[in-house]
Structure of Osteoclastosis associated transmembrane protein 1:
Amino acid sequence: MGSATLLLLLLPGVLPSLCAGENLLPGRHLSLQSGLEEIVVGGRHRSWPLALEDLSSLASGFLGVPQEPQLDPECKELLTAFANSSLRLAGCLIQSSRPVTLCQNCYHQFGEVVQQFENIENTTKTNRCAQSLLMSDRLQMVALVNNFFNDTWIKANCANCLNKNNEGLSAGTVTFLALYNESMACFKQNLQEDNLLPSNYSVVCKNCNATYKNLSSHYSEMQKNGQHEESGEQFHLCIDIEDAMNITQRLWSTKFNCSVPCTDTVPVIAVSLFIFFLPLVFYLSTFLHSKQKKRVLILGKRIHSNASFANIQDKSN
């Protein structure tokens, strides 16, 4: 039965005493003044209607019902530390969402959240902070927030661009970012110097071809090194590198309309022509071979018939 319901059941017996000015509880002053709807509870003046918390407090005073226990100071400190680290990580993820740089900018904040959550999980059985913060209700807000950050980090594949300890960027990622910045600087420099029209980007293609080719080669090498033949899952680099490469490729092929260098197209064209003409060569060779075989058969029949005719003439003579 709720505290407010208990209070309503007790009011009929309490109101006559209140009107008579009697003090029902020692240490608490509870009275109704003439012409004023006011109640004094624990030295605080409350005007009617009372809030639910005041009713609960009043009922607790009447019935001696214990209040919800507060968190231990140590548990409250752990909760505050996790909240602050989560706030910093959430802000970093949002600010790094476009262009996507969350893996390179937020790995420090993500490590702090992981550490603070582990501190809550590893609390001793005496203070039971893990039970009160992680398993005291159905929603389990602390665990829910931690799972959200972990799922986001996994979907972004950030671990594929960090070192083994997740304390910094890997060497390959640092090299890629340097080549990416160099390519973007080359694009910007050539566009500013020549003030090119959208229909004439040949200067950009010519001057930035080597830089773009180095970036593309390094990206392909990173993908190749990350593949695991024993795993059936497709390998993905972190979202920072994939997004940066997509931006560069769109600029190079769509906006600048830069064609592939001739050194790359010659082998491609040669292989394509070979594959195209391979069926034709196969059918032509089959046709010639069958025609030659047929000719040999016809010639063999003629020789055999001539020999038979000669034998007949010899017998007749």
